[in-house]
Design a protein that fits this description.
The complex is a heterodimer of chains A (120) and B (207). Chain A has 120 residues and is mainly alpha-helical. Chain A has a single domain (13-118), classed as Arc Repressor Mutant, subunit A. Chain A is 41% helix and 8% strand. Chain A has helices at 13-19, 51-59, 66-73, 77-89, 107-118; strands at 38-41, 64-65, 93-96. In chain A, helix 3 packs across helix 4. The radius of gyration of chain A is 16 Å and the shape is elongated. Mean pLDDT of chain A is 81; it is low at 1-10 and 25-29. Chain B has a single domain, classed as 3-Layer(aba) Sandwich (Rossmann fold), CATH 3.40.50.300. Residues 1-5 and 60-70 of chain B have low confidence and may be disordered. Chain B has helices at 38-45, 108-112, 128-140, 159-166, 182-202; strands at residues 24-32, 51-60, 73-86, 91-99, 117-122, 144-149, 174-177. A seven-stranded mixed β-sheet of chain B has the order 2-3-4-1-5-6-7, with helices on both faces. Chain B starts with 23 loop residues before the first strand and ends in a 5-residue tail after the last helix. Chains A and B meet through helix 2, strand 2, helix 3 and helix 5 of A and strand 1, strand 2, strand 3, strand 4 and helix 5 of B.
């Protein structure tokens, strides 16, 4: 919890604005990414790209959740979401949506979770 | 070793990457007060060192230190620790620890959306935090189990007594656990999954 001595915003608020290029989160046309959407890069970083965008493309060679990207970039999830929305729109990344929410999770899914945990 | 990407931004260590086949993720939320052992539990079952993600909330200042009547806004940063368990080559489970107090509920919308369920972790010496959290989960219709973290110095209460103190219905499982212990934390998660399965079997097929 916002522990003193462990600030996240070393770059100051203007970094958030720059990274998100001033856009508000959640643009239409694309389903917004969620905390545990898995992001996979579909393009190589290019010169002149925002460092954070280039970093996302490098770290997402293998699937990585939005939460993990936020942790590695040390940026709030809302800012990362905006960044990813841009990359998705440009087809530079692909997002693998979480298992769809239902009132109750699917029995097969629960079985898979059960087996996975039992193997720990 | 963390490898460096752009401008010194470190990505995951090579042993922390998921297989390319990872197709979808699910999440479970661990709710509890400060110091109750959320991060300990996440860390004991996670395959990666727990990571921290942060979110900011802007709220109007209380006005105590207003200068010339200008309303000040304060930014609260809340950190959530989380971990990961690869359930199989395609399915990944993420575990998020989040504070139970009402002032942090702004975090809950994105967090509980699509979550399988929650573990309410409690310290028997400080049950108050859990009251709010349990009430809120019930309101939101999030299935949960209550896990009593075994602190060596905490008094041991019979489960029935704790249930009564928390006004917890019999349908909600309550289990003892040791958040430091991997097997015990895994069993807590298994208890949640079993509870979710039981909700299926008691759900009537026709209204």
């Amino acid at each position: 919890m916002s522990e003193p001595g462990k600030p996240w915003d070393e770059g100051g608020p203007e970094r958030l604005y720059t990274v998100s290029r001033g856009r508000a989160p959640q643009e239409p046309r694309h389903r917004p990414v969620e905390l545990v959407s898995l992001i996979v890069a579909r393009a190589e970083p290019e010169p002149g790209m925002a460092p954070e965008a280039a970093a996302v493309l490098r770290m997402c060679q293998f699937p990585l959740s939005v939460a993990e990207i936020s942790a590695y970039l040390v940026l709030p999830v809302s800012t990362v979401t905006v960044l990813l929305t841009g990359l998705l729109r440009d087809d530079r990344v692909e997002a693998r949506a979480p298992v769809p929410a239902a009132v109750l999770p699917d029995p097969e899914l629960l079985q898979a979770v059960m087996h996975g945990l039992q193997n720990l | 070793m963390d490898y460096r990407t752009s401008e010194g931004i470190a990505g995951p260590r090579s042993e922390d990457t998921l297989p390319a086949s990872a197709a979808a993720a699910v999440k479970v939320v661990i709710v509890g007060g400060f110091g109750v052992g959320k991060t300990t539990m996440v860390g004991s079952v996670s395959e990666i060192r727990p990571l921290t993600t942060e979110e900011t909330m802007t709220q109007a200042g209380v006005g105590v230190d207003d200068i010339a009547g200008i309303e000040r806004k304060t930014e609260t940063t809340v950190a959530m620790d989380f971990g990961r368990i690869s359930l199989n080559e395609r399915l990944v489970l993420y575990l998020f620890g989040t504070p139970g107090q009402e002032r942090f509920w702004f975090l809950w919308n994105g967090l509980f959306e699509g979550a399988l369920g929650a573990v309410v972790l409690i310290d028997t010496r400080r049950l108050e935090v859990s009251f709010d959290a349990v009430g809120r989960l019930e309101e939101r219709g999030v299935p949960f189990v209550v896990a009593v973290n075994a602190f060596p110095e905490a008094p041991v209460h019979p489960v029935a007594e704790l249930r009564a103190a928390m006004d917890l219905p019999d349908s909600v499982p309550m289990i003892d656990c040791d958040a430091r212990d991997r097997a015990s934390s895994r069993d807590t998660l298994l208890a949640l999954v079993r509870h979710l399965q039981s909700l299926h079997t008691v759900t009537p097929e026709t209204p």
